[in-house]
């Protein structure tokens, strides 16, 4: 049995996974900013891992996804953009000292989600694909010939940090904080011609408005899809991968995002790519990160 951990900029998730089975038990979810502010990231992990080990002493290993850059040997956190207070942290040294004898593995959270889709997802015979996770940040991972691509120094394919449409990164524009800031500007410009309210904006509020066919909400998701498509054009050109999966918390709006995403990509790619281009919603939803963290031991 593996203790799987998925640390995100907004929430941190914990759960137990039996090897080879895409089932999560003893699930626990925490507010990341509050937990990190009160205990620090290392303190949070020590407390939660200690609690699980006390209750479930038969845990065989601990797999963890972290939202940022890691050392090539996967022992140290280098930078977590959405948890800046974590700083540079030799996390495996600290946890191994606290919990000797328990195997620990860490990986980038989006790469964990990619592993989760590869090992446990419902897409069959998918040995080459790119996953993009839409949430607080924009994460990405790719499987090439059945293997997780990490890049020369271990942090390849940081799609969210490429420049799109000028001097701002993709994450700055369509990561949840940037997306909501843009939505607020558009709500103000609409002058009341929308059900959206500037003082009550959230991803869910925009999704609910879109399901009511609110014109502004639909245009916001179209804007997101267009920018994401522009970023994915670069990824497809670089990696020659045309199976694309869209995951993460915002991916529930896939139906609203997909038309402009597809149009954006098809208008910038030649038939060599578009003839085999498939853009689908990832199958594991918000469980992908935890299952992929457990999959580090498969």
TrEMBL record:
GO MF: kinase activity
High-level lineage: Bacteria, Pseudomonadati, Bacteroidota, Sphingobacteriia, Sphingobacteriales
A Pfam entry, by short name: ROK
Organism domain of life: Bacteria
Organism: Anseongella ginsenosidimutans
Name used for this protein in its record: Glucokinase
Family listed: Belongs to the ROK (NagC/XylR) family.
Keyword Oxidoreductase (UniProt): no
SUPFAM superfamilies, per the entry: Actin-like ATPase domain (SSF53067)
UniProt entry keywords in alphabetical sequence: Kinase, Transferase
Keyword Kinase: yes
